[in-house]
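Students often ask why inverse folding is considered easier than folding. One informal answer: many sequences map to the same fold, so there is more than one right answer. In these notes we will look at a single instance of the problem. The structure comes first.
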C-alpha cells in the first residue's frame, strides 16, 4: 500500500472540520472523498464479499476473513500463477470500482484485471473500461496507481520511484480528493 504521510504544510481534511463544518459535511458526502479508498469492513462493496465471478474464462474468488478482503486469481504479476492476494484499495466509486491488491512489492499495489460497474452490478475486463490503441503493449499494470492514478485520485501525492530498487514508495497526504487537493496546503491558514 502507498503510505499516508502529511508533509509540506498539508494537514488533512479532519483539521478543517472544526471551523468549516458545513463545507466538510458537503465534501464528506461527495464522490471526491471516495475517489480512492482503503478497503475495510466499512468501505468494501458487496461485490467483493464471499463471491465468485468468471470473466473471459478466468475465475476470481472473493473471500472475507477477519475483516480483511482477499481474492484468488490467476495473478498477472506472477505470470498467471494462481494466488490469493489481499485487496487493499479501490479507485472510483460513482460509476465504477477499480480494485488494487497487494503485490510482492510492499508499497506498489497491483490492479485487478476486472472492473466493477456499480449501476449494472457487473464485472467487465479492464481493457473494456479503459480503452487503448490495439497495438498498445500488454502490461501487468503494476505500479500504475503509484505512477499515474495517484496524481488525480489522491491528495498531494509524491510518487517516489526508488532509484536503486526500481520499486515505488508512494506517499500521499490523503487518499481521495480532499480539501487541500483544491485549496492547497492548510497548515499556515490554520495557524493564522
Ligand atoms: C481555526 C479555524 C479554521 C480552520 C481549522 C480552518 N479554517 Fe479556513 N477559514 C477560517 C476563517 C475564520 C476563514 C475566513 C472566513 C471568512 O472570511 O468568512 C477561513 C476561510 C477559508 C477559505 C476561504 C473562504 C472565502 O470565502 O474566501 C477557505 C477556502 C478555507 N478557509 C479552507 C480551509 C481548509 C481547506 C482548511 C483545512 C485545511 C481550513 N480552512 C481550516 C477558519 C479556519
Ligand atoms: C489527469 C487526471 C486523472 C488521472 C491521471 C486518472 N484519472 Fe480517473 N478520473 C479523473 C476524473 C476527472 C474523473 C471523473 C470523470 C467523470 O466523472 O466523468 C475520473 C474518473 C475515474 C473513474 C470513475 C469514477 C467513478 O465515478 O466511478 C475511475 C474508476 C477512475 N477514474 C480510475 C482511474 C484509474 C485506475 C487511473 C489510473 C490508471 C486514473 N483514473 C487516472 C481524472 C484522472
Ligand atoms: C474538488 C475541489 C474542492 C474540494 C475537494 C473542496 N473544495 Fe472548498 N471550494 C472549492 C471551490 C471551487 C470553491 C468556491 C466555490 C464558490 O465560490 O462557489 C470552494 C469554496 C470553499 C469555501 C468558501 C466558502 C464557501 O462555501 O463558498 C470554503 C471555506 C471551503 N471551500 C472549504 C473546503 C473544505 C474545508 C473542504 C474539505 C472538507 C473543501 N473545501 C473541499 C473546491 C473544493
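Output (designed amino acids):
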Amino acid at each position: 500500500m502507498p503510505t499516508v504521510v502529511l508533509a509540506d504544510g498539508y494537514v488533512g481534511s479532519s483539521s478543517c472540520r472544526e471551523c468549516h463544518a458545513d463545507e466538510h459535511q458537503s465534501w464528506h458526502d461527495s464522490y471526491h472523498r471516495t475517489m480512492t479508498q482503503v478497503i475495510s469492513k466499512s468501505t468494501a462493496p458487496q461485490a467483493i464479499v464471499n463471491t465468485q465471478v468468471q470473466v473471459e474464462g478466468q475465475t476470481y474468488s472473493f473471500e472475507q476473513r477477519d475483516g480483511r478482503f482477499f481474492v484468488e486469481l490467476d495473478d498477472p504479476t506472477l505470470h498467471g500463477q494462481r494466488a490469493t492476494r489481499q485487496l487493499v484499495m479501490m479507485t472510483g466509486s460513482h460509476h465504477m470500482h477499480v480494485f488494487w491488491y497487494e503485490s510482492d512489492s510492499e508499497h506498489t499495489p497491483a490492479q485487478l484485471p476486472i472492473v466493477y460497474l456499480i449501476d449494472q452490478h457487473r464485472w467487465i475486463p479492464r481493457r473494456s473500461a479503459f480503452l487503448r490503441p490495439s497495438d498498445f503493449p500488454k502490461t501487468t499494470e503494476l505500479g500504475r496507481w503509484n505512477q499515474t492514478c495517484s496524481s488525480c485520485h489522491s491528495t498531494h501525492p509524491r510518487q517516489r520511484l526508488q532509484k536503486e530498487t526500481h520499486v515505488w514508495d508512494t506517499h500521499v497526504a490523503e487518499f481521495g480528493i480532499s480539501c487541500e487537493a483544491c485549496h492547497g496546503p492548510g497548515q499556515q491558514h490554520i495557524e493564522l
